[in-house]
Amino acid sequence: MKEYFVRPVDDLQSVLDHAEPGSLVQLAAGEYRQKLQIRTPRLTLRGAGCEKTVLIWDDYARKLDEQGREYNTFRTWTVAVTADGVQMLAPSAISMTLTDGTVWGGKAQLVKAIRKSYDRTFDTPVYKKASVRDRYNELTLRYKAFDLVFRAYNEGVAYRFVSRIDKRVGVQEGSVSQGVLGNTGITVEQLTYYNLNDAFDALSAGEVDFVLCDAYPGAFLASTYADVSFAGALNEPSSWGIAVATGKVDLQEAVGDALDAITLDGRMDVVRVSWLGGMPAVTSDQVIVETTTQSVPEDDAETLDGSEAGANAVSVG
Questions:
Q1: H-helix or E-strand spanning residue 140
Q2: Is the per-residue pLDDT at 132 higher than 60?
Q3: E-assigned strands of 3-47?
Q4: Per-residue pLDDT for 8 more than 90?
Q5: pLDDT in tens, 239-248
Q6: How far apart are alpha carbons 3 and 30 in whole angstroms?
Q7: Does 158 share its domain with 176?
Q8: I need a labelling partner for 61 at 20 to 30 A (CA). Which of 43, 257, 260, 261 fits?
Q9: Backbone angles phi, psi at 201, to 5 degrees
Q10: What is the mean pLDDT of residues 109-122?
Q11: Which domain holds residue 48?
């Protein structure tokens, strides 16, 4: 086995590109601020020890590239391995050191482990294929300040650290609620989902801290989870009624009589409990954030909603 010795001042990418297959690359202690790709088969990278040899790069999901596009998670890797048989992680501790010196890992105490499997298909209108299958097993190791998330695909494995210092909010992708949140000025980490069912599954699993959505679809879904409850409203609630043409006097009276009847005999309460569980009536007392929100114009509501099912889509079945 041929060995290469590299220092932080050296061009590590060049060494990786020209190393013979099956070689050992020894990394001296220090910080390697380089975005790396490993294309040579059966390489072994070995550092000087945990917290001594650091590979770092400054890309992140919402960073903009030269064309003004967000990098997204797929392009924010620090080390990308495209060759077979490369040993990146020998049996060793995993940790990450933040710029302020905080270390995630080391003696951190595990809170719980979450195992999930995913098998879904995404439409890809700007890709060479019409759709892409996203299938993997996921293990999330939850600690107090961070999550360590592993994903195993047929093609390879990946892991990442996820901060738990700031709260995470789940929203439906392209929904009116997502637009409203953007107008509040509140800084939170947003995780987007295809519909509210997926968002509430994530909330129950601990992947997000809150879900932001229309109160009534949210209350309907929350009633199906033992560990999910109504927290409050983002802004002042507004009331909606039933519109009847002025000349339809008989219809006005019939609708009014029907509403009075089901209210007085308790059927309205039964329907409410059946659909909304124990959610209280939404009033100004439930507003939990003192901030000004801008209403989303009706003409824009359809544009913001990325699904065919509505602004806050729920699957009922």
A1: strand 131-142
A2: yes
A3: 3-6, 24-27, 30-33, 36-38, 44-46
A4: yes
A5: 667 788 888 8
A6: 19
A7: no
A8: 43
A9: -60, -40
A10: 84
A11: 1-92
